[in-house]
Amino acid sequence: MDQVPATATQIAVDDASPFFSPVLTPASQRILVPELIGAFLDALMHEMGFNENVTMIDRELLNIAQCSRLFQEEAERRLYTSVKFFVGSTRARDLATVMRARTAKYVRYLKIFNYGAARGRGDTSIFSVAGIPFSLMTGLDGIEVHFAHARKGDDIAPYDDRLFQILDRDLQDNILKGFRCAHPLSRSCVPFLSRQRTLEVLQINLISIEPVPTEDVVNRATFPKLTTIIGSIIDSPSLSSIIERSAIQYFTPLHTFGLSPGWSSYSHQLITLDVAHCQALDPSTVEEVARCSPRLQLFMVKLDHQWEEKKINIFDRLTQLAHLEVVGILPEPSTFNDYFISTVGHIRACKGLRSLVIVVSTGETNQFCGIEMQRTVRKAWTQTTPGVIDIIGWKAKHVERIELSRKKTAA
């Protein structure tokens, strides 16, 4: 059999030592285009399990970025899409350094942890939020701010507002789609939001005891794309003003809830309403909520003692909600068993209902115990064994499903 002449490349490889490393070619001569490299990395991430193995995937992407100049850019693009910045840590310093050097443009979502009082390293310390190059983050579309753990009563104490000054100075206009901060903020911290008319999701907790200035920048802001609000003090002028001028569809008030004078002007467009973080509601309030919110698909509520005392079934108050699919109920803990037995028999009154949870707080933050019920394809109902329920995850799962369903319908 005739032998095929060896090519120059084969000869070079055969003569090379086991540790042979090919010479890197200039970018203009590379055979693999970024799209192919990206597709390879995406396939690798998919094989490794995406969300299930985030730490492992990040470590692998970092190794690839450090070992291959050819793959570096696309690996870093994926590695720095979502960034966690722990204020005051050595990791924060290293992260700030590499973002300033080349990767800030890849950041899409930034989570800031351990924020709060000044750290004593100086206003320009790369360990602090001053090290975050917001001016270089041209693709940033989401920010979450998590304050350091505070003792009870410290959440309204004076805090370092440097981050919000930096955002007002350096953040580009109209790039954010989401901003989340559960810690109480003064109005002096949020002027930067008025230049983010692209906002779709807003979690804000304005200090209620703070006087409202006549020229409140938050009151004058308009967010035409805003659909989701997680906020406190619904009847505060600032938050009410934002809600009334936006097409809010997903609403989660914190601490208190009331039927404000402008309630009916925006409640008709609500798709999800979670008032379980607020005070317990009486039957007449729930009935008015249902009357003014005909598009509701998810409703979560805490019930006061009148429901059990007067033997009122909540589903009788919700039957007019033709699109209702998901309900979360938090009855009085002392009446949980009796209320569950008396209520569950009327579940079929809401014909479109697909999922139900009835839970009570265990006393720990965001920990609930109760029963979950699910309607099967044959329209029968199944229930779980009573136990701990991840109510936050349960809600998030259904909100995501509802949103995907709406997008498909719109398409």
Automatic annotation (TrEMBL):
UniProt-recorded name of the protein: F-box domain-containing protein
Organism: Sistotremastrum suecicum HHB10207 ss-3
